[in-house]
Each structure stands twice: as structure tokens, then as C-alpha cells.
Write a structure and sequence with these properties.
Chain A has about 290 residues and is mostly helical. Chain A contains eleven helices and no strands. Chain A has one domain: MetI-like fold. The relative contact order of chain B is 0.12. Classes of the chains: A mainly alpha (about 290), B mainly alpha (about 300). Chains A and B meet through helix 1, helix 3, helix 4, helix 5 and helix 6 of A and helix 1, helix 3, helix 4, helix 5 and helix 8 of B.
Chain lengths: ~290, ~300
């Protein structure tokens, strides 16, 4: 069969082309970070000096610290609110204003970030002016908390999608069985539901963490004096042109994320295998009987 | 249901609901209001006034008039839509065969292939866009490759770049950057619909005498419609308002609306104008947004 061999090779070539397109820029970025030449496109031997320079780059390190704090708090809050929102959407098919709720949860997934950032900022500024007029102290001050609020909006949307997908596949009879056996609703949640959706919560946490760590637009609108996140530092340097320090930071971030994602997916895969085995083991006696 | 159950139901719904109302919906109302005011006017008193016992609204549509009359704004909206549409079509053209071949590859290979698509999505979007800057500047890797096969002359001929050898800060570099960034958003929904497809339908089509090509167009493509729509919306809508990519890879010929909003706000400090731009942008994406959420709702209804 000549045609099918051709098809197979065509498919492989297309996949290879696609993956090359996705990965060449990343590989190039990593390679450039070891280049001993301030002009990115001329190779002049291997060096680690951009990494050494990073250690004394105050601006970038301060940005990194702030970004981590924001990302951590965003991820925690997103998982909590996202779990609530996912429960509301999956368990309660009708309540007042459900359509509006569904729309609001999903909208930040696609809504241009400039709109989200601008509108949230101006609302917070109005609030700040109103409180200043009323109490003499403007609240909230622009800074870490306002950035966190913006990232949480995005994080809530993504966390809800991930957790909702898992909740939909749960078998409701397990929770009903626990209730029949006398467990209180909150016990059912902690002992039955939560262990079953744990993986989804972990994925949602990692996803919202990286989203927050990467965000430029929302942070630019919502940051205040002295609150500059790492992407903002990188962005302002990248705007001016090519910058070897950016390559070095990029390589570190890519390495950390790649390791994190690979480890997490191995953990998830191992858990999944164990779950399948447990389920099979639980079924066997009844099948024998 | 017990009383605790009802209380729980209320909390589960009310907490995220109230949060979204306060931090998502309310801000929109705020910018809608600011967009019809003039610079400096930022309290409710400025547009609502008591006059002889009736409420008088004084809305100022000056910002919108300016938007509608100024050629520059109209052209910017047009080019934003155009660039977003071109990017969506390119993502579909590259992503559909890609997702199709992924879904038809060996079962044991698929999780790894899927993870390889998702991995770039986990690494910083900003840095991946920045990487193209290095690749496309003079003597960059991609620039050299494109010039060595003479592709730059062809692109200059159709107007994608101003002249041979000038690849950065052109419509070409912008479209390339957006296609690159949003490709995984197209592939993932397409893959998930194509992987779920019942392959016996293709056998049935073949039994009924359809060629592989006919079966693909009359069975596979219609069945993957939800994936096509979800993917296209996930690419098109954020592209319309994209700011970072036009700023890093675009140039003077590629003015986009997200950048205009940014400049009105940060450079001109004209808040009401920035709000008017934002409100019109919302109107621009609200139709695709509604299509997107309807299909999302249908997809989740089908899976339950």
C-alpha cells in the first residue's frame, strides 16, 4: 500500500514540523543564554557570566520575590474560589442568575487582558477616592494586593474549568453512600469528595501559579510604585531590545517549569494507576460472588 | 435537604458569585460610566443631577464621536480584526492536521504528544514571544533561514514586509508571533473532540462506498465542529485585544486596538478615552464571546 505509507510519513512530517515550530524559539533562547557575546546573534563561545550577573541584579530579584508571593497567594485563593464555583456549576443546575454566573466565570478566559486590567484598576481607583473622601485614608493602595485581585480573576476562571471537568466525571453515588452511612455533609466533602478531586486541585494550583507568574498586562495596570513584578522588569527590558540577562532568566524559568510539570505529571500518572488498580481490586470479590 | 445542606448551597453559590459581581461586572459598569464623562469628572454627581424634581442625566458621547470620526481609530479596529482573523485561520490550518494526526497516532504515544503541546503553554508566554525577537532580527536564526530560501522576497512582494531582509516589526512578525503563541489553544480543543470520535463511523462510511477523503470531509470535519469553534474563539478573541505581541514584534504598520488603549491610558493619561476604546472593544468581542459560551455550555451539557 503505497498511499498509506505516504500518509503515515506525511502525518509524521506534519507533527515534526509542528513540534519544531513550538520548540525552536525555546531552544534558541536557552542556547543564547550561554553565548559570550552581548550581540545575541553572533556566537562567541560558551559562558556563564549572564547567570553570574543575575545574582547581583537587584531589580530582577526584587521582582522575582514579589512575583512569587503574588503567584502563591493567587494560586491558593484561585483553588478555593474555583472549587466553590465549580461546585455551584456542577451540583446546582438551577439558581437565580445562573446564566450570568456561567458567563462571568468563563469570560476572563478569552476577554482581552487590557480590558480586565483597565476596568478593575478604574474601579479600585474610584473606590480609593471614595474612601479617601469619606475616611481620609485611600483604600486600597495600588500594589501587591491590587495585582493579586487581578490575577485572582484570571486564576478563578482557569481553576474553575479544571476542577469542573473533574467534578463532572465523579460518581455521585459515592457521596450518597457516605451520607446514607451517616456522614455529615462536611465529612463527606473532606473524606470522600476532596480526595477524589485532589489531582484536579493540584493541576489548578500549578496552572494558576504559572499564569500569575507570567502575567504582564494585568500587573502593569494594577501595580503601584515599588511593586514591580518580574515579568514587568523583563518586559521593560525586552521592549528596548535584546538583553542577555533576559535569556538567562528565561532559561532558569524554563528549566524549573519543565522539571515541575514533568514531576507533577508523573505523580498524577502514578496516582491514576493506583486508583485504577484499587477500583479493580474492589470490584473483584463481587465479580467472583 | 437538611438545613445545613441549604446553608451550604447558599455559600457555595454566593461566595464566588458575589466576588465576580464585585470584581468583574462592577468594573465594567465603572468604565462604561467613565467613558461617557470628560477628563476630570469621576464621581456619580457629574452625570446625574437633580433638576426641578427630575433626574437629569448629562451623558457626553464626545469620546465615542471621536472614535467614530477619527480615521485612525477605525483603521486600528479594522486591522485588529484582520490580524486576529488571519491568525485564527493560520492556527486552524496548522492545528487541524496536527490535532488530527495526534488523535490518530498510537494510543500509548498520545499522552506524551499531548504533554509536548502543553509544555510550551506552561513556560512563560512573554519569554517565548521575546525569543522570536532574537530569531527574526538581522542575522537571527530564523531570519537567515528565511532569507536563504528567498522567502523574504516573496513576502515583500505581497506586502507582508516592507522589503527583503526586513522581517522584524512587520505584519509578518506580528502574525508569526500570534500564531505561535495561540497555536496550542487551537490544538487542544481540536484534539479532545477528535480523540473522542467513534472511528466505527468512518468504517461505516467506507462500507457505504465513501472514499477516505469524502469520509474525512463529510464525517470527521462536521463531528469536530465544537472543537473548531472553541479553538477559533480561544484564538480570535484574545488576539483582537492583544497587547504584548504587537508591542514586542509589531511595528508602525501594525497598530492594534489593545496598544491604542494602552497608549491612551499610560501615555496620554486620557482615562475617559481609554474607557471608550475598551467599551467599543467589548462590543466587538461580545458576539464571538456569546458563541463561545453557548458552545461551552452545550459541550458540558453533552458530557454530563
Amino acid at each position: 500500500m503505497r498511499a498509506s505509507a505516504f500518509n503515515r510519513w506525511f502525518a509524521r512530517a506534519w507533527l515534526a514540523f509542528g513540534y519544531a515550530f513550538l520548540y525552536i524559539p525555546i531552544v534558541a533562547l536557552v542556547a543564547y543564554s550561554f553565548n559570550d557575546s552581548p550581540v545575541a546573534n553572533v556566537w562567541r563561545g560558551f559562558t556563564l557570566r549572564w547567570y553570574v550577573a543575575l545574582a547581583s541584579d537587584r531589580e530582577l530579584l526584587a521582582g522575582l520575590a514579589l512575583s512569587f508571593k503574588v503567584a502563591l497567594t493567587t494560586a491558593c485563593a484561585s483553588v478555593v474560589l474555583g472549587t466553590l464555583a465549580a461546585f455551584a456549576l456542577v451540583r446546582y443546575p438551577r439558581f437565580f442568575g445562573r446564566t450570568l454566573f456561567t458567563g462571568m466565570v468563563a469570560a476572563p478566559l478569552v476577554m482581552p487582558e487590557v480590558i480586565i486590567g483597565l476596568s478593575l484598576l478604574l474601579m479600585l481607583v474610584s473606590l480609593q477616592r471614595a474612601t479617601e473622601a469619606a475616611f481620609g485614608i485611600g483604600f486600597p493602595e495600588r500594589g501587591m494586593m491590587t495585582i493579586w485581585l487581578g490575577h485572582l480573576l484570571l486564576g478563578l476562571a482557569y481553576a474553575t474549568v479544571v476542577i469542573r471537568a473533574r467534578l463532572q466525571t465523579l460518581n455521585p453515588q459515592l457521596e450518597e453512600a457516605a451520607l446514607d452511612l451517616g456522614a455529615r455533609p462536611w465529612q463527606v466533602f473532606w473524606l470522600v469528595t476532596l480526595p477524589m478531586i485532589g489531582q484536579a486541585l493540584l493541576s489548578a494550583f500549578l496552572l494558576t501559579f504559572t499564569l500569575s507568574l507570567d502575567d504582564v498586562v494585568l500587573s502593569a495596570f494594577l501595580s503601584g510604585p515599588g511593586a514591580t513584578t518580574m515579568p514587568l522588569v523583563i518586559f521593560s527590558r525586552a521592549r528596548l531590545g535584546l538583553n542577555p540577562s533576559v535569556n538567562a532568566v528565561a532559561t532558569i524559568i524554563i528549566a524549573v517549569v519543565a522539571i515541575g510539570v514533568v514531576v507533577a505529571s508523573f505523580v498524577i500518572a502514578a496516582n491514576e494507576r493506583r486508583r485504577v488498580l484499587d477500583a479493580a481490586a474492589a470490584k473483584r470479590p463481587s465479580a467472583a460472588a | 435537604m437538611s438545613r445545613a445542606g441549604r446553608g451550604g448551597r447558599f455559600a457555595v453559590i454566593a461566595v464566588p458569585y458575589a466576588w465576580l459581581l464585585a470584581f468583574f461586572l462592577l468594573p465594567f459598569l465603572v468604565i462604561a460610566r467613565i467613558s461617557v464623562s470628560e477628563m476630570g469628572a469621576t464621581t456619580v454627581k457629574d452625570i446625574v443631577a437633580w433638576k426641578d424634581g427630575t433626574i437629569a442625566f448629562s451623558l457626553k458621547f464626545g469620546n465615542y464621536l471621536l472614535l467614530a470620526q477619527d480615521d485612525l481609530y477605525l483603521r486600528t479596529y479594522g486591522s485588529s480584526l484582520l490580524f486576529a482573523a488571519v491568525t485564527t485561520v493560520l492556527c486552524l490550518a496548522i492545528g487541524y492536521p496536527f490535532a488530527y494526526f495526534m488523535a490518530r497516532s498510537r494510543r500509548s504515544l498520545q499522552p506524551a504528544l499531548l504533554m509536548l503541546v502543553m509544555l510550551p503553554f506552561w513556560t512563560s508566554f512573554l519569554l517565548r514571544v521575546y525569543a522570536w525577537k532574537a530569531l527574526l532580527t538581522e542575522q537571527g536564526l530564523a531570519a537567515n533561514a528565511i532569507e536563504s530560501v528567498g522567502l523574504d522576497r516573496a513576502m515583500a512582494a505581497v506586502g507582508l514586509i516592507p522589503g527583503p531582509g526586513q522581517l522584524m516589526n512587520t505584519p509578518f512578525s506580528l502574525i508569526l508571533g500570534m500564531t505561535y503563541t495561540y497555536l496550542p489553544f487551537m490544538i487542544l480543543p481540536l484534539y479532545s473532540t477528535l480523540a473522542k470520535m467513534d472511528l466505527r463511523l468512518l468504517e461505516a462510511a467506507a462500507d457505504l462506498g465513501a472514499s477516505a477523503w469524502t469520509a474525512f470531509w463529510r464525517v470527521t470535519v462536521p463531528l469536530s465542529r465544537p472543537g473548531i469553534i472553541a479553538g477559533s474563539m480561544l484564538v480570535f478573541i484574545p488576539c483582537v485585544g492583544e497587547y504584548v505581541i504587537p508591542e514586542l514584534l509589531g511595528g508602525p504598520q501594525t497598530q492594534m486596538i489593545g496598544r491604542t488603549l494602552w497608549d491612551e491610558f499610560f501615555s496620554n493619561n486620557d482615562w475617559p478615552m481609554a474607557c471608550a476604546v475598551a467599551v467599543t472593544m467589548v462590543l466587538l468581542v461580545v458576539v464571538p464571546l456569546a458563541v463561545f459560551s453557548r458552545y461551552q455550555a452545550e459541550a458540558s451539557a453533552r458530557s454530563t
